[in-house]
Design a protein that fits this description.
By secondary structure, the chain is mostly helical. The protein contains five helices and two strands, in the order ααββααα. The protein has one domain. The chain has a two-stranded antiparallel sheet. Strand 1 and strand 2 form a beta hairpin.
């Protein structure tokens, strides 16, 4: 299975860090392991979502982010993920940095699912 934007270096680093897929119950928890999920701040009636946690392996997080940015900016094919993100860009131009992280999380989930299936 091929994932657009993910090359040899990204996939090798991802497999080396994940090691065995049995460590995670769901594919989304692998994204949390790499720190690609937002922080939650809750106290009483206050509940807001912050920036990404940046926990886990920073090299793999950076590689996943770069893979996501290459999908969004350099790929010529049309992907459902790219279409949704570019529509959001038209609505809110400041969404570009956030969308890279969200697509990076999606690339992580897809890569983890592909690794589990193999």
């Amino acid at each position: 299975m091929s994932i657009p934007g993910v090359g040899v270096q990204t996939s090798a680093a991802f497999v080396a860090v994940v090691d065995t897929t049995g460590r995670f119950r769901q594919s989304h928890t692998a994204g949390a392991y790499f720190g690609l999920v937002p922080k939650r701040h809750q106290s009483g009636e206050t509940d807001w979502t912050g920036r990404i946690t940046k926990q886990g392996d920073s090299m793999v997080r950076k590689l996943l982010y770069e893979a996501a940015k290459s999908i969004l900016t350099r790929s010529r094919g049309s992907f459902a993920l790219k279409g949704v993100t570019t529509r959001r860009w038209r609505i809110c131009p400041t969404f570009k940095n956030v969308s890279g992280t969200q697509v990076g999380l999606t690339v992580d989930v897809v890569a983890f699912s592909a690794l589990r299936a193999s």
